[in-house]
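Input.
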Amino acid sequence: MTGLLVVFALAMSLLAARCGAWTPSVLWEAERARETEARLAVAEERLRFGRDLHDVLGRNVAVIVLKAELAVRLGRRGRPEAVDQMVEVQRLAQESQREVRAVVRGYREADLGAEPAGAQGVLEAAGIECAITGSAAGLPAPVQSALGWVVREAATNVLRHGDARTCAIALRTEDGRAELSVENDGAPGSPGGGPGSPGGGPGSGLAGLRERPAELGGTLRAGPVDGGRFRLTAEVPLRPAGTTETARALSEVTP
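Output.
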C-alpha cells in the first residue's frame, strides 16, 4: 500500500508539472495569435486601399499611354489629329485625378458615428476590452470627420504598439468644443511611449494625428498617465473662427 501511494504521488506530481508547463505555452500562443491578428487587420486595410487605387488607375493609365504614343506619331507626321488625341489624354488625366481624390477621400475621411463601433469590434476581436461613452449626434460634419479619423488611427496604434488589455473611447462636448479621448493600458514604460510611438520616442504617427484637429483650429495631446496607461486627447472647436481651405473642402464633400 505504501508503494502504491508513493507511485500515485509521483504520478500526480508529474501530471501537475506537465500541466504547469503546458499552461504558459498556451498563454504565449494566444498572445502571439493576438499580435498576428492585429498585424493582419492593418495589412488587410492596406491591401484594400491598394486594390482600390489599382482599379482606378490601371485602365486609365494604360489608355493614356496608348493615346500619348498615338499623338506623338501623328505629330511627327504633321497630322492635325494629334491635337484631338492630346485633348483626350488631358481629359483622361483629369478624370483619373478626380477618381484618385475620391478614393483617398473615402479612405482618409471617417464617420464619427461609425468609427468608435468599428474600433470596438476590431479591438475586442484582438482580445482588448473596449468601452465607448458619448455620442457624435449633432456635431458638425468637419468635426466628425476629423475626430473619426483620430479614432481610426488611435485604435490601429493601440493594436500595433504596447500590450493593451483595455481601451476606453470617450466623446463629450463642452464650452463650444468637442473633446475625444482614447485611453489604453499596457503602454511602454519609457516617456512618450504609446500609440504612434513604438519604442518610446515620439513617433511620426502622432504628428499625422495632429494634422486633422489642427486644420480646424483644434489640438491633440498624448502621453502616459498614472497606472501604466496612455491617453490621447483631441479637442476641436465646434465653430472654428477661421475655416481653412481643407475645412471648406471637407464641408463641400460631406453629404
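The first helix runs from residue 2 to 76.
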